[in-house]
Design goal:
This protein is an alpha+beta fold. Helices cover 20% and strands 22% of the residues. The protein has two helices and five strands.
Length: 113
């Protein structure tokens, strides 16, 4: 498999890891769009939200809960943070492995993009 995030999971590509357990990995984005920009990914390869199966519900919940926990650890939870899943090219997905962007530490505009 030629997936960038799978290579990060397998330590074939270095990253700045901020959290890891048996099902998830979180690391700082190499092109941050905010003072805090962490990617939270499942270790299981799923290309996009469109490819999720009913058995993946708990896994996606874990991604969201972990993002909130990291926001708390970074001191941005009280002020606010944004979580984003981009799904497919028109939405800006460039790596086809489900991932949640955790963004915070600055004011966020609405609507985004």
């Amino acid at each position: 498999m030629n997936c960038l995030f799978c290579k990060i999971i397998n330590r074939e590509i270095p990253s700045s890891i901020v959290y890891e357990d048996d099902r998830l990995l979180a690391f700082n984005d190499i092109n941050p769009q905010a003072p805090t920009h962490v990617l939270v990914i499942p270790k299981k390869h799923v290309e996009s939200l469109n490819d999720l199966q009913p058995g993946d519900d708990e896994l996606i919940g874990e991604l969201v809960r972990r993002a909130a926990a990291i926001a708390g650890e970074r001191g941005i939870a009280a002020g606010g943070f944004r979580t984003v899943f981009n799904t497919n090219r028109d939405a800006g997905q460039t790596v086809f492995h489900v991932h949640l962007h955790l963004l915070g530490g600055r004011n966020m505009a609405w609507p985004p993009g």
